[in-house]
Write a structure and sequence with these properties.
Shape: elongated
CATH class of one domain: Mainly Alpha
CATH topology of one domain: Tetracycline Repressor, domain 2
Structural class: mainly alpha
CATH architecture of one domain: Orthogonal Bundle
Low-confidence stretches: 1-6
Distance between the termini: 25 Å
């Protein structure tokens, strides 16, 4: 099976100017490789092929570059989660589609996802608060679908908020272990995780 390609360049394509796009791409690689604290602005500039002070031309600080990256990743993942069900009306199938898409996103964009999920504690408080607002929407999306499935008699979850958190955590953790060199494609990861989720909430996978 061929290795899956990352979608990170696609996510960055709308970023202008090109120098900012290059710095964000370099930041993702550096933060994913070394972590935020061990990465210097010189590391990022060098990875992008720019002069040592290039980061400061576009970002007030290294933390602001991390924030731009984190916001991009969270908004992209949220869009995938919200749009995955499409016009599907069956609650169990809706949440199945959402979990499959969310887990696959974390595999497909594993470098970016690793940064936004595990380096966020380095953000200044005001930026963490903005990112947390987006994260709350993840939680509400899953809770809403669980509640709809329970009301329809399709799903069971004695603790809806706790179950939603567990589902999201499983999907997010894909970024920690996934590599394109593995023998599972992002779509296969998504299919597996959606099946596990359905079993978790008392539904029989199709």
């Amino acid at each position: 099976m061929s290795a899956a390609k990352s979608e990170e360049p696609t996510l960055l394509e709308g970023i202008e100017p090109a120098s900012v796009r290059a710095l964000m791409a370099a930041g993702i690689e550096c933060f994913a490789d070394k972590g935020f604290n061990a990465t210097t602005t010189r590391d990022i500039s060098a990875r992008a092929g720019f002069s040592p002070a290039a980061v400061y031309v576009h970002f007030p600080s290294k933390a602001d570059l991390l924030f731009a990256t984190s916001r991009l990743g969270h908004e992209s993942a949220l869009k995938v989660l919200e749009e995955a069900p499409g016009d599907e009306e069956d609650p169990a199938h809706r949440i199945e589609l959402m979990v499959a898409a969310f887990a696959a996103w974390h595999a497909r964009n594993n470098r970016l996802a690793r940064v936004v999920q595990y380096e966020g504690r380095a953000l200044p408080a005001k930026h963490r608060a903005e990112i947390n607002t987006v994260k709350e929407r993840f939680q509400r999306c899953i809770e809403s679908e669980l509640e709809a499935g329970i009301a329809a008699g399709q799903l069971t979850a004695p603790d809806v908020p706790g179950t939603a958190l567990a589902i999201l955590s499983l999907c997010i953790d894909v970024a920690r272990w996934y590599s394109p060199s593995r023998d599972r494609s992002p779509e296969q990861v998504g299919a597996l995780y959606s099946e596990l989720m359905l079993r978790m909430v008392g539904a029989t996978p199709a």
